[in-house]
Amino acid sequence: MRKSFIAFVWIVAVLGVMMGDGLAQVTTTWTGGTSSAWDDPLNWNNGVPGAADNAIINPASFNPVLNVDAAVNDLTINGGALLTVNGQSLSIGGDLTVTISNTNPDGLIMTAPNDVVTVEGVATFTTVSNHGSADSQGQFTAGLLRLRGGFTQTRNGALASQKSFVSTGTRVVCDGEGSQSIAFSNPSVSVSR
User: Fold this and answer.
1) Could you read off the pLDDT of 34-68 as tens digits, one per residue?
2) Could you report how far apart the first and last alpha carbons of the chain are, in Å?
3) pTM (2 d.p.)
4) The pairing of beta strand 188-192 with beta strand 181-185
5) Which among 124, 126, 140, 122 is positioned nearest to 176, based on CA atoms?
6) Among 9, 11, 97, 169, which is 20 to 30 Å from 155 by CA?
């Protein structure tokens, strides 16, 4: 009996090591029912996201405002929702996807000088299907957007706005260690380094 128990514990331990962080990663969605505080677990359906977690931001009664430095794996900001960086640092270990709509402002808001967003994966800025007046003008006026992976600015449909990413003051730095691909749908330009 004792040998069986030890064998069972050993198998569970080996499986836990083999699976690593795969068990720890969760996807949590902003509900924004309590406040705009990023670090309030009552504003998330599956707890405040950590560095290994994927975060999804949908439109809500309260839009999230970073009140602490934060780190996530993938971050998705859907049309009509917004995230204000608010002078904090946000580290995204995976991909960033920002979709803007005709609701202004929406998407990612970087207007404080101390705003820092670092994206290790691909940063994609796009529009909701055929939203002709979707515009990020005024949403990127300060701070630093550091891109370590690729960057794509696109639109969803022929009638959609071409202004899914318009920086009027936010510094954009591409400093990835590997090759980086940068593409804009208008003007139609692609660059790799």
Assistant:
1) 999 999 999 999 999 999 999 999 999 999 999 99
2) 62
3) 0.81
4) antiparallel
5) 122
6) 169
